[in-house]
Design a protein that fits this description.
The protein starts with a helix and ends with a helix. It is mainly α and 72 residues long. The protein is rod-shaped. Helix content is 85%, strand content 0%. It has one domain.
Length: 72
């Protein structure tokens, strides 16, 4: 499961808990969980920004280089 999907599921569950918060948790606990989820989303987004981008042109160069390598 992807992290983004997991965070979406947790957010949905948190909304459901918020509707029934008196049965499950105090309001401030729900707020802490929401803050944690927001922090996780921001860190996930920041992590994705530092990952190298895939270059579709690179695959063509690799194939051409491999063929030339086998010829010579």
């Amino acid at each position: 499961m992807r992290y983004k999907d997991a965070l979406s599921i947790i957010k949905g569950d948190l909304l459901e808990i918020r509707d029934h918060h008196q049965e499950f948790a105090f309001e401030f606990e729900i707020g802490l969980i929401e803050t944690l989820l927001t922090t996780l989303e921001l860190k996930l987004h920041a992590f994705k920004q530092i990952l190298p981008k895939l270059d579709s042109r690179r695959g063509l160069l690799n194939v051409g280089g491999s063929m030339l390598k086998t010829l010579f």
